[in-house]
Amino acid sequence: MYAGRVLQGAGARALVPDEIERLGAQRVLLVAAPSSAEGTQDLATALGERYAATFGRPAQHSPVEVTAEALAVAREVRADAIVAIGGGSAIGLSKALAIRTGMPQVAVPTTYAGSEVTPVLGETENGVKTTRRDPAFAPGTVVYDPELTLSMPRGLTLTSALNALAHAVEALWDTEASAATRAYAVEAADGILSALPVVLGRLSDVAARARLQEAAWLAGACLAQARMGLHHQLAHVLGGTFGLPHAELHALLLPHVMRFNLVAATDAAARLARVADGDPTHAVAALAAMHEGPTTLGALGLPRAALREVAERVAASPYPNPRPVTADAVEGLLLAAWRGELVR
Ligand code: NAD
User: Fold this and answer.
1) What is the CATH number of domain 154-339?
2) Which of 196, 163, 167, 201 lies closest to 287 in space, CA to CA?
């Protein structure tokens, strides 16, 4: 269970300076996504003398070179705390800095990726992504301010929410997940499936954005507490090796992995059918198809020739999964996702 402090609500970002004071920090490094420039400027002003510097170039999958650059800035300004504002990339960089320096972290997420409540850090070196888990990686404070999610364009809103849904779905078919984790997962899936269409209908709906963000928080907790299976393994291998965009990749893979796995995970299928009010794979596929950007692995730029190699890598050391993972089965799933044709 995430043991940090969670502050939430519209305008909650104004509480960050108090949180820094509580930590006794004097020189804050802001780690910020470029998209959060305005919020970053406001935070820097609100921090006053406690503001030291901003590092504004986090990258997906935490490349170690970027961490080295940010570390140099942190050392130069003698930073003693980090405030990360942005999506999973900014929060990943914050974790990477924290484990190298021991600095406390305050995370202010602006997407639904969920990294802020997990003890997990994925880093990329020479094109290979490795994932480590340590309770010390999780930020001590998370500030959920739904107003910071209003700037997410339609495409990112949709794909990031499906990324969150994937955490909940995989927790539901983890046979070792606790009752508490299953409860989080059902609540997260319910929240995402009901709030996402409302948000997509009106991106500026703060109340619906708040519901979606809360569901994404619970989904992040699922990612922290459950064993992730084939879906996250595919996303890690494809994302880390080919640099494919994280949220879009999760969004397009999810219906295909659900189609593959749910036949072997009847309890998860029944719970998801209740919250989806029908066939959950269809519901998720319909949402994924609403994306105006790439919705197939082919459109995302993955060469057809890579599918077999990816399938073999995944099958050689599969993550725990309800259905046996063979290279042929994974290749079939990847081919369906590459073409965008859901197997019946
Ligand atoms: P991201 O942080 O890379 O952000 C995607 C893009 O959206 C960026 O250009 C960013 O600037 C922009 N953006 C972010 N918030 C925005 C907003 N509110 N409005 C407009 N634009 C905004 O993407 P992500 O999907 O949030 O995170 C992906 C990264 O996080 C990956 O590296 C992934 O591996 C990692 N991740 C890690 C964990 C974990 O537990 N360790 C969990 C989830 C994701």
Assistant:
1) 1.20.1090.10
2) 196
